[in-house]
Design brief:
Blueprint (H helix, E strand, L loop, with lengths): L1 H22 L1 H35 L2 H17 L4 H12 L3 H11 L5 H10 L5 H12 L5 H20 L18 H14 L4 H35 L2 H16 L6 H9 L1 H9 L6 H14 L1 H12 L7 H35 L8 H38 L1
Protein name: Sporulation integral membrane protein YlbJ
Keywords: Membrane, Transmembrane, Transmembrane helix
Pfam families: Gate
Length: 401
């Protein structure tokens, strides 16, 4: 019965999407182009170098090298192997869904157990600084100083999620598992053994890294575009406003204005649109806007969660722990926004304006703004060039087989 209900639900959803596309073709096209712009201007060019580098680092044993070195603090803090330190750092630097991709690779390489992978993926999928500082604080709020607050809430909240998730599956943890001690000599030995055990020539390793990364990013682009369209269609058929009305009671209890309910629901589906709508809500105070955006960033949005689910589906890693961690991250980030709003935003602005007038953006923030502008100008060219290289590589491989 459950199987039939699921089939009916999926079929109804697809039929609804098809009918809505026919009914609102112009709006669907605009939403699709918005998602496409986000993907080929920002997502593809910013993630591809990280994805390729990660594949090479895994192939050459560098991840195992850092795993041994990071074991002394990753195991006590998060109850995951030292290799998780590499995933955590890369996830924060490159943004979601890098953490899920790298965790899946480590699981496929049998470097971590199933439970350890579920712990690891729960706190290694974070937004990158470029998106938080450049796109949201500068692009939407036109306030670069806000980026420090949002980034602090996001990353500190993510750290707390990792601490909490260390207790997940504790009964299933095998205490007899050998835990490598800190040893640079042993780390180099493991690196060497891993490198020579991979019989592929460098050209093949590099080609595989490029092709696999491009294929993953193409999948991510599809999710971004389709969720952008779905979000728009749900709004046009009044489903999103209807759900927002349900949240009015919850927002009233939390002391948030009803006008933030619609941006919140939109943000649950797609972060970028939700953050943009939140920034444009005049009826809310800045603190209320920051609380909402912090939750949405921590929750990741169903668009990112669908990307993560697709990546995890290739392994035995369960999605449920990741989803629970996203709710936890959203709550932590929102609470931190309330606590840190005065010291990291109000007080900092008071200090800067209390002495001499400050013009322009802080140096550290302006760098992220310049990087975002660079990606917006040259990102599409880079994306098309990389896709062309990927197509040529696949064509040559097919011709030689």
């Amino acid at each position: 019965m459950n199987g039939k209900f699921k089939s009916l639900l999926l079929a109804s959803g697809v039929i609804f999407l098809g009918v809505a596309l026919i009914q609102f073709p112009k709006d669907a096209l605009e939403a699709s182009l918005r998602g496409l712009d986000l993907w080929w201007e920002i997502v593809f060019p910013s993630l591809l170098p990280f994805f390729i580098t990660s594949e090479l680092l895994i192939a050459f044993g560098v991840v195992k090298f850092f795993g041994i070195l990071c074991e002394p603090f990753m195991r006590p803090l998060f109850n995951v192997p030292g290799a998780g330190g590499f995933v955590w750092a890369m996830g924060m630097a490159s943004g979601y869904p890098s953490g899920a991709k790298l965790t899946a690779r480590l699981r496929q390489e049998r470097q971590i157990s199933k439970i350890e992978a579920e712990r690891l993926v729960s706190f290694t999928n974070a937004s990158n600084p470029l998106f938080i500082i450049g796109a949201i604080s500068v692009g939407f709020f036109h306030d670069p100083k806000l980026g420090i607050l949002l980034a602090a809430c996001h990353y500190v909240g993510n750290f707390f999620v990792g601490i909490c998730m260390r207790f997940y599956g504790k009964n299933e943890f095998n205490s007899k598992t050998k835990r490598p001690r800190f040893s640079i000599r042993r780390a180099f030995h493991v690196l060497h053994i891993t490198r020579i055990s991979d019989q592929r020539p460098f050209g093949k390793i590099f080609g595989d890294a490029v092709v696999n990364s491009i294929q993953t990013l193409m999948m991510i682009g599809g999710f971004i575009i389709i969720f952008s369209v779905m979000n728009k269609l749900l709004f046009l058929v009044n489903i999103t406003p209807f759900i927002a009305n349900i949240f009015h009671f919850i927002f009233a209890i939390l002391g948030l204005p009803n006008e933030l309910a619609l941006p919140f629901i939109s943000g649950l589906f797609e972060i970028t649109l939700g953050a943009q709508m939140t920034a444009q809500t005049d009826q809310a105070t800045l603190l209320q806007q920051v609380i909402l955006v912090s939750f949405v960033l921590g929750f990741n949005g169903f668009s990112v969660q669908a990307q993560v689910a697709s990546i995890l589906a290739e392994t035995d890693i369960r999605f449920a722990p990741y989803f629970f961690a996203r709710l936890l991250h959203g709550v932590f980030a929102s609470v931190l926004a309330i606590i840190l709003f005065k010291p990291l935003y109000i007080d900092q602005n008071t200090v800067q304006t209390g002495d001499l007038p400050v013009s322009g953006e802080p140096k550290g923030i302006s760098i992220w703004s310049e990087i975002l502008e660079f990606f917006q100008h040259f990102g599409p060219i880079f994306t098309m060039l990389c896709i062309l290289i990927g197509i040529i590589t696949l064509y040559k491989r097919r011709m030689t087989t």
